[in-house]
Amino acid sequence: MNYLTIQEQHIIRQIQTETEKKNIDNISRTNAYFAYYKQNPDIIWTFLAHMVSRNGGWNMCDLEGAVFSQLLEPQTRKQLFLTYERANWLIFHDVFPQLLLYHYSTKYTRPLFHLLPYFNVSSFIQKEWIRYWKEKDRNRLTTALIINEQNVIHTPVIEHPVYKRKVFWSLLFNLQDWLHFSCVLFPTCGGEVYGASANGFRKLSKRIDLGKRLASILFQPRLFPHFLEFAEKTPHTGSRYDYEQYFKQPTGRKTPMLRTSFPLIEHHQHTYEDWSRKRLVSPVWLYVPARHKHPIHLTDWYYTKTHQLELMLSLKKVLDLEK
Fold first, then answer.
1. What residues does each domain of the chain span?
2. pTM exceeds 0.90 for this model
């Protein structure tokens, strides 16, 4: 690493401070992604991150909602919350300095990517930012960021012995995976829901493929204005009611708001390893376009899955009574 100017030292400190300030919980992260997107609309990945982060919030709040709070033991719910929170935190901790450095580069009209190593980001993504500065290929950068962030969480979250045993190999997770409850949803103010399922979540390539499919849905020219309208109009609280309020059939609030339900978690990054020095980047990840095997319009599917969950709860209550 080379000698830094006073200005560069200042930029590094500013980025560290701002990242830490906005990485306190799912609400602050989700809002930070959208605020960034509005300032830098060419970095379209940040709108994808905002919409996926909304889903992260809903997944957390569902754990304290009407159904899961009765289906799952408190300890299981706590473990699931911590898993979502850890993955959320790690991604933001990794990506937000990259985004801010790009923002400073545009402000000073010169690339500052030689500072990326000071934020412990992969050599893979460092090269991609330099390429983007020269070529301005938004889709390539979006795919590269999807690849990077899924690799960032793979070893410390998905492969972590505790999360692996208590979450990813648990009966509940496998049941959820099988039933496609783990779905990323993009709502509209017209009460429609679009999205894609995340079955096979443990597999890195499946998560990258899901990210690419979600990007292709979100930025479809016909649908994009509706998703943007939703994001503009709807403050993110973490409750599923954020989008159920627009449904044709009113549902009422079944899940609480995030900040009334969960404490702030203090995170630490114990060790840093550059994943791209250990793992090869598959050409499939970078060059094979997303393919949709299932319908992306999920409004009816959503109602069906909601009923299935309620049926599971009723069945559990019957079985508990018979014990």
1. 9-322
2. yes
